Structure formats: C-alpha cells, structure tokens
Amino acid sequence: MELPFYFLDAQASGPLPVWNRVALGKPGGWRGDSHLFDGQGYDAVDANVTGGWYDLDGHVKSTLTIAFTTHTLGLSGLIFEVGFRDAGHWDSVVQQVQLGARYLLAAHVRASDDPAANALVAQVGDVDTDAAYWGRPEEQQERGVENTPAYRPAWVADAVFPGGDVAGAASAALAAAVLVSRRPGLHQDLALANEAYRHAVQLLRYAVEYPRVWRPPEGRVRYNTTSVHDHIALAHALVCMADYTQPSICNVAANRWQAGYLEYGRTPAPLNQARVRLQVDAQNVLPWASVAMLFSGISKTPASGDFDWQYNQHIASVLDAWRDTNDLCSDVSIPPCQTPTSGFAYFGVDTRANVAVNGKNAAAQLLAAMHAQLLETAARLERPGTVELTRPRELRCWAHGQLRHITGDNPMGVSFLVGYGDAYPRSPRQRSAACPADRSLPCLPPNGTQPNPNTLSGALVGGYLLGSNEFTWSDLRSNVIGNTAGIADSASVPGMAAALVQLAASLPEYCPMADYCAGLCYPDSPAPPPPSPPPPPPNVDVCIVDGSLDACRVMELPFYFLDAQASGPLPVWNRVALGKPGGWRGDSHLFDGQGYDAVDANVTGGWYDLDGHVKSTLTIAFTTHTLGLSGLIFEVGFRDAGHWDSVVQQVQLGARYLLAAHVRASDDPAANALVAQVGDVDTDAAYWGRPEEQQERGVENTPAYRPAWVADAVFPGGDVAGAASAALAAAVLVSRRPGLHQDLALANEAYRHAVQLLRYAVEYPRVWRPPEGRVRYNTTSVHDHIALAHALVCMADYTQPSICNVAANRWQAGYLEYGRTPAPLNQARVRLQVDAQNVLPWASVAMLFSGISKTPASGDFDWQYNQHIASVLDAWRDTNDLCSDVSIPPCQTPTSGFAYFGVDTRANVAVNGKNAAAQLLAAMHAQLLETAARLERPGTVELTRPRELRCWAHGQLRHITGDNPMGVSFLVGYGDAYPRSPRQRSAACPADRSLPCLPPNGTQPNPNTLSGALVGGYLLGSNEFTWSDLRSNVIGNTAGIADSASVPGMAAALVQLAASLPEYCPMADYCAGLCYPDSPAPPPPSPPPP
C-alpha cells in the first residue's frame, strides 16, 4: 500500500511539497523542484500550470492520466477507508488526491458556467521533444520555441479543440477529491472540497456540450483514448455522489450510462463482446465497468432498481473475461487471457503487448475488489437483486492471487513492484532514477546495463512479453515496455492492498485468508467449536478382541491413509500434514475446476484415488457412503474405541467435496451437472512427483492438463450421480448424530443435493463416460447405485413418498433385468464381478431393505432380499471352491482359506480391497440380522447366521493384517512386517521439498510411512502366493481409498461385538458357538472332591 506513494513522489513535477518522500535531503532522496514555468512560453496559456505528476519515464504531463490517478486513489480511499486508516496510510492517500486535484484546478485555466468559455490544459510537453531528452527534470530547458530542446507547450481542450474525454476525467477526479477532502482527519480541507466541486460541475457541463475525443493542434497526444461517454458517465456518477441535491446531474446520470451502453463502437459493446470491449483505450480504466459498479453498488446512486441487473451483468462480463481460466494465452488470443502455468490474467500477447500488462491487471484487481466490497455491502443491507457472499469472495480471492503474482509469486520469482521483496527491478526505465543525486555526475544511459543509482520504489513496471507461451522480461532500461512504469499503472495498487487489509480486519481470527478463499468461513462466520479434547484412551479389553488383534489400531490407521490422499487445502486436523510428527503433505491442486476443459468453479478438496492424483467422484462417493454406513451401524464400536470424531470428520470431508462437485444444482434434473472426474488418466500417469508441485490449468497434451469432466444432460452419468446421492444421504445421517462434529446445516444442505442428484440419476440412468480421454473406473452398472441412493435418501427422510415408495421397485426392476444388473441368485458368483469398484451394491441395497426397520420394502420382499445377500456372501465363504486357473472368483486360497478375488495373471484388481468390502458387508448384515431377530420380526433367522458371518469376516481381517502364510500385514503401519514401499507418489517424495522423489521402479523404501494403506495383495499363480514390497508392483502394492474404506467399519464391528460379549465369552468360544452376547453365565465350578 505504501510503496506507490514513493513512486508518485518520484514522478512529482513543480515545487515539491514538504512531505515528498524522495526529495533531495531525505534518506535516499534525489528529486528537486522542476518545470517551474509550465504554462508559460511558446504555445502555452500564460498561466501557472506547475505541479501534478509526470506520466511515464519522461516529463510530459497528461491531464488524462493525472485525472485517472487522482480519481482511482480517491475512489479507493472512499471504499477502503477502513483499510487505509488501519494501515496508517490514510493521510498519504488524501495528500496525493489533493495534489492531483490542485493540479487539475490550476489546469482549468478558464473556468465558467458557460460551457463554451471553459479551457482545460490537456497536455503539458511535446511527446517528440521529450523523447529526445534523457536527463534530470530539474535540468530540462523550458519556454523554448518549437523544434528546440526547450519547447514545452501547454495544449488546452476548449470550444475550438473540444475534449469531452479529458474534461470528463478531470471532473470525475475533482469529484473524488471533494468526497475524500470532506472526510475527518489531519488533511480534511472543506475549502478545497468546495472549490473542487464547483470546477467539477463546470467541467462536466463542458464535457456534455463538447463530447469529442481531444487531439492537440499539432504534435502527438500522450494518450490516444477513443471513448468519451465512459468518462462523462463516470463524472456524472461521482459528481452526483458529491452532492445528491443536484437533480440536473443526478437525474441524467443513469441516462448517460444507458445512452453510452447502447451506442455502437467504442462505447460499451454487448455483453457477449466483453473481451473485445476491454480494449477501450490504452489507459485501461475499464471505465464502463467502473460506472456500472458505482450505479449498482452504492446506495443513493441515481440508477433505479430496474437497472441494477444490467449494471451487474456488465461488470460480471468484464470481470469474468479477466477471470476466464479456460482462455489460455496463445498468438491468437483476444486479451485478457490466462498465462499457461501461473494463471496470470495477461493483457497483451507476443509483440502486440505494447501496453503495461501489470498496470492493466492491477486496474482489474482493484475493480474486482471494489465491486466485491459494494456487492457485499448491498447483500448485508438486503437490497433487492443483490447476491450472496460467494461472488464477493471469488472476486477478492482472484484479485488477491493476481496481486501475489505481480509482487513475486510468479514463475520468474520477480516482484514487479519496485522495492517489494528481495528480487525486484533495479533498472526501471525512468530518467530521474537513472541520474545520480549528485548533480555533478552524469545520468546513466538509457541503453546501459548498470543499475539505476536511485531506487524507484513503488513503480509497477510493465511486466512480461509473452511469445510462444513463454515469459520474457529483462531488468534493463532499454526494455521500454516491460520495465517502464506509469502513474496510472501504480495508482490501483494502494487500493487493492487496502482492500486486503480491510478484509483481513473483518475476518475472525479463526478465519485465515486461505480458509476464506476456500469458502470455509466468512467475515460474520460463527466461531468454530473449541478444539476437541483428546479422545479418551480406548478400552484395551475391548480393543484386543481375540487376544492378539488390536481392532482399535486397525480402525484408526485408514484415517491416516485418507489424510495422505487428501487434495486441496488440508484441514487443521489432517494427521500427515507437514509440521505434524512424520507429516509430509501440504495443500495441493488449489485450482481444481479451473482451466482448460474445466467448469470454472472451485472443485478443490476430496481425496486422490490411487497412487496418482486423479479424483474420481465414484470412489470418493463410495468411500464416503461406506464410512457413513459403517458409522451408523457400528456407532457404539467407533465411540468405544475413541474414533467416532474421526469417522464423522472424514465423512463430512467427502460430503463437502461432493457438494462442491455438484456445480449446477437444480430441482430440474436436466439442469444438473456433477463433476465426475478431475484429472486426465494418461497425463496423470506420466507425472511422478508431489501433488503440491504438479502443474495445473494447462491445455490438452501438456503436463498441466487437468480437466474437470461433468456428468450432465449431454454426458449422462446416473451411476456417478446415484453414488454421490447415496454418499450425501449417508453424510446426512452421520452429521445429525450428537457429538463434537454434529452439523445440522451441513446435513440439510447435503440432503437437498442428495435428492436433486437422485432425481437426475433416475432421469439419466446411463453409465458415465468422459467426452474424451479415459475414465478412472469403467463401472458398467447403474441401477445398483440408484437403488442404493433411494434406500439411503429414504432413510434420511422417511416422509418422502416420492422416494421411499419407489425404492423397493427400483430394487425389483434392477434385480429382474438381465445383464450387469443383478443376475439370478444361482449366478451370484458371476454377479460379484459387477465392476472394478467392488461395492457389492445390490447386496448392500438388499441388506438395507431387509435389515433396517422402516425401509420402504414390504415384508413380502424380505425373503428375496435375504436370499440375495446369502447367495453373495455364501459365494465368498464357499470353502469347497479352492483357487485354480479355472476358478470363477471369489475362491479360497489352498492353505489359509483367504477369500480371493482374482486368479493368476487375471488378478488385475486389489484382492484385499474386495475382500475387505465383503468382510464389512458380512459384519453389517450380521448386525442387522441380529437386531431383527431380537425384535422378533417375522421371517428372521436365529443367531447362528450372524455369528457365522462375523467370525468369517474376523478371520479374513486377521489374514490381511498378518495372519497369513507370508506373515505380512497388508495394512501399512499394523504389526511389525508391513509394506515399506507402497506405490504412491507423495509417500515416495521426501518431506524436504529440495530433495527429489524416489523413482517408481527403485528399491529404496519410501521416506514416508503410508499408514493405513491397504495394498492390493497377492497374485496367485499355480496355487502359490507371489507378492513383492516394491513400488513397481503396480497391482499388489498400490492402495486406493475405496480399498481402505471398509476397514474401519469392520474393526468397529469387532469392538462393538467384543463389548457385547460377557466376560466369560471370549471370541474363540463365541465363534465356536459355545456362547452368545446374552448367554447365561456358566455354573460355578464344582468344589474339589473331599
């Protein structure tokens, strides 16, 4: 905020004020009084027109840029006064605005209420004469005749040489000075305010009478602006704000906007031509958007409510053109475009970049911040037609990112704001900065390589040229475009900085900027609950369920794995974040949803799927609904083990991602859009490195290509939408449960989206495929996901007959349909190969319909549901089907009775993950069967079947946690012998970012422990196990979130069971059928015989 005031001081002309920071005699100062005869001499006005600021690197004074700088600083001060005052720079902004205003008053050499009698100095100095002089302004000759080095004319806009553009800009600047000078403080100046207001009105009337673009009588104009109506409309708005009692101005202000908006040419083009319209003039004031902002956002503006929509639409079109991440820069781009790697909004391409790209960007930043502030103010006042707080947040955070770019967070690591950071321009092109303070020493030449003797602090230099998609910039005075700064370029920076200070002051201490930009909190967000106390230590007697298996540890570990797979901004509770013990992960892929082939929405968060960085909505949904359903059925087990909070946090993390991925939510099925996959499978496979360092927002066939493909009416995806609906419904049920993370607001939002996605899935029951590229999961079933969603959404609200009454019908229709929908019961073994995800979906639905009270299934269907689950689970438990080369999976391994899904070279699936899902289904079904039996529901079975299912699942869990012929626990972190080199990119990359990642085919163990990862497991050939702990073991040593998701629930089932067994009924006796949870105590032992 402070630095640009130094630059304005360095650009000052005339007698320097005492507060000038770079005056000779001040620390580091070199400037003195200069051009003390401006307005006098040949082709002049015989008046004192000293003061103001030089425009660029030379000594021409342009009223247009002096006015723009003044009104920009003034408007910034009005809207962000709190930010300026909090930072201690309010006095500075008032001083600079008043300096500009005093120059404009002096330049108004003939002031009259008669428009024809006015004359305003529009330019001091001749462009060509000035270009020929390289030296100090204090030493430049003056009052010379034409064609001599001392020629310095003062050209006016008057009735003969009309200049409505210059007069309108000066009027707007003076009106802004009126408003600032009235504000309380050390530099309040009501006399100046009154004088400035009078001149502002006179200049506005002149501009209305002579609405022409000004050109000098001879020579070149400093700025070739081609628009008039924008400056006049801006002046109307600001003069009206300065005095609302002026009907002659206020009543026609909106009409001025409307007239200019509808006129063809350089006046505002239609909204769909916003990108072309942004090239209004080289000054880049984005003037019409500025006027629209004032008319729509500030109370008491002359605009009627009917116009608000039009104004807001125009601002939106302009700013959205700047923020359009899909338009990457190329030689044919219409600016602004996005730079390929860093997302910088760039105005100017290749050799056509004859403008200061940083200055244009800074003006767009400030407009976005101003519009955000006024939108938010309007929203808080509940004005009709205003938006909620998402749009202001998006605008501010975009502007914040752009400001970070120009101040050093860019591929070159250079701050283009001189004096900020360590790496900034040392040789910006400016005459006085190139001339030593010691006047006896010569100035450095414009083409020399020696750094300037004076630091031109606060100068925002032009910036890059972008050719062939590459940045070029050099810190040389000969870099005329890229290393020159103008007052209009730097004028926007203080306001943008003040906007951030003001925003930071409004955010609660528990809402850092990163969380605000992620949409996690707002200025008026309620305080989060206090951090949870550490969970009570689990009951060791409950955890050790069979004398050796630590079920609580097994339950906890997969949450570490999910934390390691987390994408986007990491929550504070993430266990493996950098800075936590053993942590290595950081925020990553913060632009998901933006860029080429994306959705222009924030789709950060969620989890990466496997060893890479693709995000699949199908597996995120499966993981979320599996954890949620586990929590509902085994809540007692999770709470007894002290891990209830963890399961709720993970379910809510998944749900929040799915809510974000539902980028178009509507009660009309056709209007919905759900992001189904983020990332390109082939591009991702080619990258081996940290997710935090992967490039983003690139075009197709580049390493930064990361599309966000949607399922919608054009690319239907009932399978993905059904899965997401089921997951959100599970999150509803979990988030309603009492506890530290109960979140009824999230539950309500999730339920609404779940219903919308379910309706979409019913309307578009197709398997989703992306428009191009490969899908992460080739699921071939739809009805299973839709039926599961019906069941869970119905459980979330039994009062919905439109959902509950048809849920059973959905099951029945899918069950009877041939193909990938449920096959007849005697083909259950084939049916288990429903898809690579192994959700065992129809069995899950059947379990819900048969086992949970109040499901929409009638009693007549219970037998059918139970028969289907029985056929599925019995296929897994069939000990007579030993694995061979002709087996139809699942089969039993020959020696250890492990239910194995995948035989020989056909084992291209994660066998442990499939087994874990079957374990969990068995445990869940056992629990619901037992509950039904205890309630004596008709048709239920006695307690033998639940015991058999639980004990089979218990044995399978022991197998994958180390009780197997290899003695290896496939759950990383459990036991002593577990995988040290699972195939996962981030685990293979040291926490120290300066060190390279270990190669995928290397043999050195991973530097990070991927705790909780359930790796794929064996290949089984010729009835023998093969497995290797190498990153090159793509199937057997890779873990996915869907594979590990079933483990916590299975462990919670065992904890819950152990807690229900009497102390005289150990697990071994229970599994042998010797006792049950409610078995009577055995008789006391007989006394010894006498």
Automatic annotation (TrEMBL):
This is cellulase. Its EC number is 3.2.1.4. Keywords: Carbohydrate metabolism, Cellulose degradation, Glycosidase, Hydrolase, Polysaccharide degradation. It catalyses: Endohydrolysis of (1->4)-beta-D-glucosidic linkages in cellulose, lichenin and cereal beta-D-glucans. Pfam families: Glyco_hydro_9. PANTHER family: ENDO-1,4-BETA-GLUCANASE. One of its GO terms (biological process) is cellulose catabolic process. Residues 5-488, 558-1042 form the Glycoside hydrolase family domain. The keyword Hydrolase applies. One of its GO terms (molecular function) is cellulase activity. InterPro entries: 6-hairpin_glycosidase_sf (IPR008928), 6hp_glycosidase-like_sf (IPR012341), Glyco_hydro_9 (IPR001701). Belongs to the glycosyl hydrolase 9 (cellulase E) family. It is an enzyme of class 3 (hydrolase). The keyword Hydrolase applies.
